[in-house]
Prior knowledge:
Elements: H1 2-16, E1 25-26, E2 43-52, E3 57-61, E4 66-70, E5 73-78, E6 80-104, H2 107-118, E7 125-127, E8 132-136, E9 148-165, E10 168-171, E11 176-179, E12 184-186, E13 189-191, E14 195-199, E15 205-212, H3 213-225, H4 231-247, H5 276-284, E16 288-292, E17 295-296, E18 301-302, E19 308-309, E20 327-328, H6 345-353, E21 368-372, H7 374-381, H8 385-388, E22 393-399, E23 405-411, E24 416-420, H9 422-427, E25 436-440, E26 446-450, E27 459-460, H10 461-469, H11 474-481, E28 486-489
Amino acid sequence: xxxxxxxxxxxxxxxxxxxxxxxxxxxxxxxxxxxxxxxxxxxxxxxxxxxxxxxxxxxxxxxxxxxxxxxxxxxxxxxxxxxxxxxxxxxxxxxxxxxxxxxxxxxxxxxxxxxxxxxxxxxxxxxxxxxxxxxxxxxxxxxxxxxxxxxxxxxxxxxxxxxxxxxxxxxxxxxxxxxxxxxxxxxxxxxxxxxxxxxxxxxxxxxxxxxxxxxxxxxxxxxxxxxxxxxxxxxxxxxxxxxxxxxxxxxxxxxxxxxxxxxxxxxxxxxxxxxxxxxxxxxxxxxxxxxxxxxxxxxxxxxxxxxxxxxxxxxxxxxxxxxxxxxxxxxxxxxxxxxxxxxxxxxxxxxxxxxxxxxxxxxxxxxxxxxxxxxxxxxxxxxxxxxxxxxxxxxxxxxxxxxxxxxxxxxxxxxxxxxxxxxxxxxxxxxxxxxxxxxxxxxxxxxxxxxxxxxxxxxxxxxxxxxxxxxxxxxxxxxxxxxxxxxxxxxxxxxxxxxx
Length: 500
């Protein structure tokens, strides 16, 4: 693996045209990019576990043996393999020097920062060392409106992967690959693979599954919407999960794979849990994606919109997406006396009280209350709590057209911190959504009264379940939440690179 790392380093410098000592000054450890997903035969590289390397790893076959190979060839078969990492010195030190924007609350927000940087002619990359960040050459100009910092470190070691053999531990040379004819046991489930163990951009490692797109959906759909949902709702979720995966395949390109398997992407778990209804929904929509003017849409979805859909700008600072518009999600259109935009507190309160005819009311977070106090605000502010002071009062500064809060101040006697869009729920994690009003609830306490769960843009899963139960078709559900879009066959779109 040391040879593959230094080869990747040399390739990076060759592409950059760097020479001498300066040739080893990079913004991150170089990692080969994953392959572009082919529309004719789509296969995703999905991380089952990331940031590995601190503790040993054991991989166990679910049925027949695992087959291990690396750059030197096939290394044999076993029911289980034990791996560990050892620190090995590099032949030459590697200088990592970068300017950092962030951290950001989501990939979407980080990507917009990267795009702003690229418009200045700067090569910027989205990274996820723990939180979402954007990295670029420290000497290049910073886009307006963003704070930044410079990080520099000298890397003199690399983590080398080893496997335990009968005669002791053996270094592996990448790429490391495992075939699992009977499946691999992982995280309480069984996955078919094949699998890769590969380094990332931060010096740690990732366990990646190479999974065909339709099998990937078997591990996503039941965990995102529930296997017992009506057939049309399951089919809509299958289309969206497929579309989202293809449109977001660049999400972890810096680390050499396409997607993660947790809530930073779509939740991907044991595909065997896909019941007959889920499998039928995937088969019925096989190869179909939702498109706008011939391109896959930004297929965002969420659990419950609380009765009113949001546009994309209420959650993230994205370019205008005509198919994501605020709308009342109820039979009969707007409640009496109300119309969009809902920019006033009393309008939002009226929406929260007007539940007649709203789709998706059975969701447990259709209506909710949370009482937050000074301890919660102090934790949320972290190191910045001293600059704000106490007591803290939450103040709504701005609402979007659906009534959702897009700017919220945590205001104290010494100052305030303003949370914007997706940073609101990322910081105040007890809030299910940003569709809320705030009331005093006692000394230092504030009651948030709200509706819905999630960002509110695109399909409401609770609404889709409701509409599917009313007999709506998959096309009707998708057109309801993404007006102007159409279902198209994936092969007609060819190779898809994802991203803006």
